[in-house]
What does this fold into?
Amino acid sequence: MQVFKFGGASVKDAAGVKNVCEIIRAHSRPENVIVISAMGKVTNALEQITDAILGNAANIDLLISQLKEQHFQIAQELFPSAKPVLDAIESLIAEIYWVAEEAQLKNYDYEYDQIVSIGELLSTRIVAAYLNASGIPCEWIDARDLIRTDDSFREGQVDWRITEAQIQTAYNKIRTQKPGFLILTQGFIASTSDNNSITLGREGSDYSASIIAYCLNASEVVIWKDVPGVLNADPRIFPQAELLHEISYYDAIEMTYYGATVIHPKTIKPLQNKNIPLRVKSFLNPLEAGTLIGNTELRNEKPTFIRKPEQVLVSISPRDFSFIIEENISEIFREIAKRRIKVNLMQNSALNFSLCLNNEKGKIDAFRESLNDRYRVRYNEACELLTIRNYTDELTGSHTSGKNILLEQKSRNTIQLVLQN
Ligand code: ASP
It folds into this structure.
C-alpha cells in the first residue's frame, strides 16, 4: 500500500478537490491511505481566529463566518445537494464556538490546537464526501484516533508504541470490513492521552503521512505539491531553480534541516528507518516523475540554495567579562529549550555567543529577559539565513551582493550566512 498526501494548495477550491479526486482515481490503489491538509490558507485563518478569541477581539464572529462561508461555497460548488456536508461543516464551526466559550487565556498553545485542528476536519469531510459521490469509496477516519502524542501542544511528540497499535488496528478493521475502501484522514492533527486535540507543528501533514507509512510498512509515500518536485532552490526566489530527479534521505534531511520548506523536516526519519521511498510530485502535472527520495548513494552535487526568512541574530556576552564556557552555554540552552525556540545556527568566541533563531517575538523577548541579569544581550531583527550547499565563492558573492553579512559559517560543502538587507 501507499500513502498519498495532499497539501492545502491542492484543495484550495472546488476545482482543486475535483483534481485531487481525479489523481486518486488514476494513480491510487484501493488499499491506500490518503492524508489531507486544511484547505488553502485555512490554518492561517484559524490562527487569526485563535488570536481574536484569546484577545477578546471584536471581529471573532466575522472571522468565523468568513471561514464557514469559504467551506460552504466549496461544498455547494461540488455537490448538487450539499445538505449533509453543510451540516458537517456547521457542526465543526460550532466546535470553534464551544472552545471560544471555555477558552482560558493561560494556555495559548492548548487553545490554539483545539481551534486550529478544525481546519483539517473541515477539509477531509468535504473531500471524503466528494470521493464517495464520485464513485471512489472511501472511509473517513479521525486522525486523532490514529496518532497519539504527549502534551507538547503545537508540537506533539509521537508516542510510537500506541500510535503504531492504533493505526494498524484501524487499518486492518477497514480492510476486513470494507475491502476496496480507501482510508482518508487528516494531516497535522493527533490527540493526547486525555483525548485533547493536538497539532504536530505547522506544515506537519507531511509528517503525518510519514508516521502512517512507517506504522503500516507502506511501499511508498507520495506527497503531491504545486511544484514539480524537490528543486535546488525556491523558484519564487531563484528563477533558475532546477528539479532534482533523485536524492538521498541524507540530502533531503539536510535540506529540510537548513530550512527547505518543500517537505516538513520530521518527515524523512521514519521513512529512512524503514527504507520507504518518498516521491514528491506535482498535482498540476501528475504524469511527471517528480523527485524520488530514497536509499541511494547518490550525492547531490548541484548547488542548493535554502533561504530562511524571519530570523533574529542574538549575541550574548557575560556582563563580568568572563569567557563563554560550557556552563554559560548550558545555561543559555536551558532557557532556549524551556521556550522551544528554534536555533538555526550558533557560533562562539571568547566573550560572545551568537545564535540565529526563528524570530517568534514573544518567545525571544522572554528569552532575552531571562538572561538579562548576567549577560549583555544584543540582537538584530529582520535577518535571513542563507544556506548554500555545494557553494563556490562566486555563487556566494552573487547571492550576497548588496546585503550586509552579519555572520558567516563554512564547512567544506556548506556555507551559511546571516544576512540583512
Ligand atoms: N494545515 C497545516 C498548516 O498549514 C498543516 C499542513 O498543511 O501541513 O500548517
About this structure: The chain has two domains: 2-225, 304-420.
